[in-house]
Design a protein that fits this description.
It contains 18 helices and six strands. By secondary structure, it is an alpha/beta fold. It has a six-stranded parallel sheet. It binds NADP nicotinamide-adenine-dinucleotide phosphate (NAP). The site of NADP nicotinamide-adenine-dinucleotide phosphate has 32 residues, from helix 8, helix 13 and strand 5. NADP nicotinamide-adenine-dinucleotide phosphate binds next to helix 8, helix 13 and strand 5.
Length: 457
């Protein structure tokens, strides 16, 4: 490949990395994603000038088709459906990496041992990421509602992984591998990805998606080496590294080692455990909620997945502004895994216009709850469950939570008595200082706003 092309790929990779770096701050995040996007377009254009490139018709068809589907789906996807969209796009990346390897195997033996080994690794990881992401998509989209766990699941995983390695080695040592070995290798790798992901459900799914994302990055990086394409190598490694870091951060925020996420999944059914909870849930009206908050000095609002589903962020901010006009100090507390994606709540609140200086992370705000007159929990559940602090037998024991139960009064907005994502009953709802405000978040916060306004008169 000519020096100019290499240099162009290098420049594109630098802009891509700078774009990602800019995404680390909410203020520069939008610019960052635009830079990274332009860098990817530039990388695609450079590919057209790569010597020996002839398939312009196919390339343009692929770019136009993929671009149109991505544009359309990006426009129509709801914020709450974002995790499954990430899952399926991620799967496409893994599938593409595996497909590149498949073509190279079909071409046969002129690659050398290093390139073939990397191609096999990329094909294995990419196939696992592809089928695993398809299963994750089906689960999150509600297409696959059952959580399948095979008898001796972990043994089956190990046998399949071993078989994939043996078949991969056969491809590496054979100059031109017979089609039957290549096909068997891909079938085993695809089945492995699906079988690994099928038992995982509930609260672990976003971690798995992030892990599969890291796999895809790695697979793309390996295939970049096989194709001699530095942009693919850099982009793949960046995605692999960031996916790995994100996976670790989420696992830490949930206090779930990654091996437990994969080998001993936590699902609603499997969650079990936990001490029996005593007490009853006590209800309050929207009028009472409005009065308690209107005459409070400090209110901390804790949003969760339910706020996202209800699309209540604008109403919540409207209510917060009314309270502030009345002299109440209002802050927003965000748990690192509130919602279904890291940053899910930050994005929604930013979209509603909540200033960044009103939004606090768990470590920043947890000490403030004992001084808060009201902690208003809106569609959050697992991330405020005090059993994570108190009950050693609970499956979520050790997960850092927002200490809302330490506020003088807790008001919980939810529609009914349903458990959280992990399927675990919430001890908070039964506490003496906690009251339930039943209703869908948007509608019930709307009612609270009406009452707060009436109290002003
Ligand atoms: P959650 O535990 O999923 O609970 C959401 C609550 O919202 C439910 O109790 C539900 O109760 C309520 N709800 C649903 N629709 C509503 C509506 N329209 N109006 C009002 N309330 C509504 O949510 P979370 O506290 O945000 O916890 C996030 C979960 O995802 C955790 O288990 C976490 O471990 C997991 N997770 C997240 C990430 C991430 O990156 N964010 C990563 C890994 C895992 P009702 O049905 O009774 O209304």
């Amino acid at each position: 490949m000519s020096g100019v092309i290499q240099l162009a790929y290098f420049a594109v990779a630098v802009v891509f990395i700078l774009g990602l770096k800019a995404m680390s701050s909410p203020v520069t995040a939008r610019k960052g994603i635009v830079w990274a996007g332009y860098a990817m377009i530039a990388a695609t254009l450079v590919t057209f000038y790569t010597p020996g490139m002839q398939n312009y018709g196919l390339m343009i068809t692929a770019i136009v088709t993929g671009g149109a589907v991505a544009w359309w789906s990006g426009k129509v996807v709801k914020m709450t459906d974002m995790p499954q969209m990430v899952a399926i796009y991620n799967g496409m990346g893994g599938g593409a990496a595996a497909a590149i390897a498949a073509l190279e195997f079909a071409r046969g033996g002129t690659h050398g041992v290093t390139a073939t080994t990397l191609a096999v690794l990329g094909a294995l990881i990419g196939s696992v990421a592809f089928s695993g992401s398809c299963v994750a998509f089906a689960k999150l989209q509600g297409i696959m509602t059952k959580t399948w766990r095979l008898p001796q699941q972990n043994l089956v995983n190990i046998v399949l992984a071993g078989l994939a390695v043996v078949l991969g080695l056969a491809i590496i040592v054979t100059e031109t591998p017979p089609a039957v070995i290549v096909i068997a290798f891909f079938v085993v790798a695809l089945v492995l990805g699906a079988i690994l992901t099928m038992p995982i459900g509930g609260a672990d799914m976003p971690v798995v998606i992030s892990l599969l994302n890291a796999f895809t990055g790695l697979a793309v990086g390996f295939e970049g080496y096989v194709l001699g394409n530095p942009a693919l190598i850099v982009a793949g490694i960046v995605v692999g590294a960031s996916g790995t870091l994100l996976t670790q951060l989420m696992a830490k925020a949930m206090n779930r080692p990654i091996r437990n996420v994969i080998f001993t999944p936590l699902s609603g059914a499997a969650a079990g455990g936990g001490e029996a909870i005593e007490g009853t849930m006590k209800e309050l009206s929207a009028l009472d909620a409005a009065s308690v908050m209107r005459y409070a000095s400090k209110v901390i609002i804790v949003p969760g997945y339910g706020m996202a589903v209800a699309g209540a962020q604008h109403k919540v901010w409207e209510m917060a502004q009314l309270l502030e006009e009345g002299g109440v100090d209002v802050a927003f507390a965000i748990h690192p895994v509130a919602g279904r994606m890291p940053g899910h709540m930050n994005v929604l609140l930013a979209e509603a216009g909540v200033p960044y200086d009103k939004i606090f992370d768990l470590e920043e705000i947890n000490a403030d709850f004992p001084q808060a007159d009201v902690a208003l929990v809106i569609g959050a559940n697992d991330v405020v469950n005090p059993v994570a602090r108190t009950d050693k037998t609970s499956p979520i024991y050790g997960m850092p939570i927002l200490n809302v139960d330490m506020a003088h009064n807790v008001i919980v907005v939810k529609r009914g008595q349903g458990a959280g994502y992990s399927g675990i009953e919430n001890a908070l709802f039964y506490k003496d200082n906690c009251r339930m405000l039943y209703g869908s978040a948007q509608q019930i916060i709307g009612e609270v706003i009406t009452h707060v306004k009436a109290l002003e008169v």
